[in-house]
Amino acid sequence: FIQDDDREVFLVILLNTKNRVIAVHREHVGSINSSIIHPREIFKSAILNNATSLIVSHQHPSGDPKPSLEDIEVTERLIEVGRIVGIPLLDHIVVGAGDDYVSLKAQGLL
Fold it and tell me: Which residues contact 5 (CB under 8 A, 6 or more apart)?
């Protein structure tokens, strides 16, 4: 959905109890190298769609999917809020060029 965009796009993928996708929201479109994300907006869509868990994803227009310090900090905040509201964050996927991507869960950051 977002691989070829020329600006950072932040997606929220909402899941049901069977981990099936029930909705995909294009939560924010940022600049060429940043996107402002607030947990309030992420979890608003999750609550309104009765999601039981979520995955977030954004792409790096540079093509390098290596997570930035900001990516890691946002992920940590989303994990914390997810615990509080009872809607866990299952993964944060950073998309790069081609088939390149990084799963923060696979990296042990989740």
Answer: 29, 59, 61
The β-bridge partners of 11 are: 26, 57
Supply the Cα-derived Rg of the chain in whole angstroms: 13
| Distance, CA of 23 to CA of 61 (rounded, Å) | 24
**Using one digit for the tens of pLDDT, what is the confidence trace for 70-100?**
889 999 999 999 999 999 999 999 988 878 8
C-beta separation of 57 from 42 below 8 A: no
What distance in Å separates the CA atoms of residue 53 and residue 29, rounded to the nearest whole number? 22
String of DSSP letters for 19-51? S-EEEEEEEEE--SS-----HHHHHHHHHHTT-
Residue that is written with structure tokens 């866990």 in the block: 88
If you count them, how many residues does the chain have? 110
